[in-house]
Design the sequence.
């Protein structure tokens, strides 16, 4: 990381309105968002389906023009070809020519990105090994699974050794091991001083990977910031497990703690704040219960998202309908 304050991506007042159908009905995909990504950062762009992640990325890559506002890469307007010279891009659904093999496709991308011919073959082998597609390097792309295509697209994004990686849903279609491999690969890129902007629905991946997160919802930034700071701001909760709990214990803690689980004489409680915690422990012990554990609960990014959405007066249907760690 040569200069941590240098912005690699600058988005200011960005709007994108698509016009659809015969009557050119406007669809406001992005409604005036601003953010920066500095050199060496890993930033996650998250939000439910249709929140504007891909649109933002497309404008950033010069694939579509903004309706208003600006998008810059390395200080250059995103529409300029030179702005994209140092960018590796993985599109949402990477299109890989079906009659080529991964090796041929990645080599083609290396040629298009002017990778030196003397280094090309070695570089292609390297990125194929890193993305876990080397074993299928010479199969026809048409016969590859979704996850293998995703790995091929990722290798193509990495082949020219770009300073900035823009990855739209890099984990999509991958099995748990594949997700882990891609996480490690992104970490490794950061260690090498690269800057990464990636989009995802999966909060766990974002939480594990990013320095900073930008949560989009309906084309607007709902919240953005350093993950640790955002989640630390939340209420201090402790998960308290009691053994030998009786009805008297339950009565003694009523109103001061939320019962998460009650199995036999074991009682798992959620307690907010240090003082209440001491009080609950004292009262429980007085009824003959024992403290098995008291674990501070770190708020998750998902909790934060749901809380922010509720605060904005929204009904969060997307977040509630989704799985425990998925905004999709
Ligand atoms: N080419 C297009 N023409 C018209 N509307 C579009 C187009 N592309 C996207 N949209 C609309 O813009 C909004 C934002 O879409 P976008 O693809 O940016 O969301 P996303 O956050 O990437 O969603 P997902 O998580 O499903 O990938 C949606 O309402 C979508 O229907
Ligand atoms: Mg998308």
Sequence:
């Amino acid at each position: 990381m040569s200069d941590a304050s240098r912005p690699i991506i600058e988005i200011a007042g960005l709007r994108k309105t698509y016009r659809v159908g015969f009557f050119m009905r406007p669809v406001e995909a992005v409604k005036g968002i601003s953010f920066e990504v500095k050199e060496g950062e890993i930033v996650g762009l998250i939000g439910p389906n249709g929140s504007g992640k891909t649109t933002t990325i497309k404008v950033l890559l010069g694939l579509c023009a903004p309706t208003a506002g600006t998008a810059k890469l390395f200080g250059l307007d995103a529409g300029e070809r030179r702005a994209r010279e140092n960018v590796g891009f993985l599109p949402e659904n990477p299109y890989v020519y079906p009659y080529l093999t991964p090796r041929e496709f990645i080599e083609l991308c290396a040629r298009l990105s002017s990778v030196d011919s003397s280094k090309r073959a070695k570089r292609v082998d390297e990125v194929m090994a890193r993305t876990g597609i080397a074993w299928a390097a010479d199969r026809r792309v048409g016969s590859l699974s979704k996850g293998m295509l995703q790995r091929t697209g990722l290798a193509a994004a990495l082949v020219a050794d770009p300073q900035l990686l823009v990855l739209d849903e890099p984990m999509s279609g991958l099995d748990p091991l594949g997700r882990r491999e891609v996480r490690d690969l992104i970490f490794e890129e950061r260690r090498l001083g690269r800057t990464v902007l990636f989009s995802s629905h999966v909060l766990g991946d974002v939480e594990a990977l990013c320095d900073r997160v930008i949560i989009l919802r309906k084309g607007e930034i709902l919240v953005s910031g350093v993950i640790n700071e955002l989640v630390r701001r939340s209420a201090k909760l402790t998960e308290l497990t009691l053994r030998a709990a009786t009805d008297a214990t339950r009565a003694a803690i009523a109103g001061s703690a939320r019962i998460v689980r009650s199995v036999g004489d074991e009682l798992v409680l959620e307690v907010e704040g240090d003082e209440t915690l001491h009080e609950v422990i004292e009262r429980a012990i007085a009824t003959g219960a024992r403290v098995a554990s008291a674990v501070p609960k770190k708020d998750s990014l998902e909790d934060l998202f749901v809380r922010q959405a509720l605060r904005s007066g929204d009904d969060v249907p997307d977040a509630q309908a989704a799985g425990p760690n998925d905004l999709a």
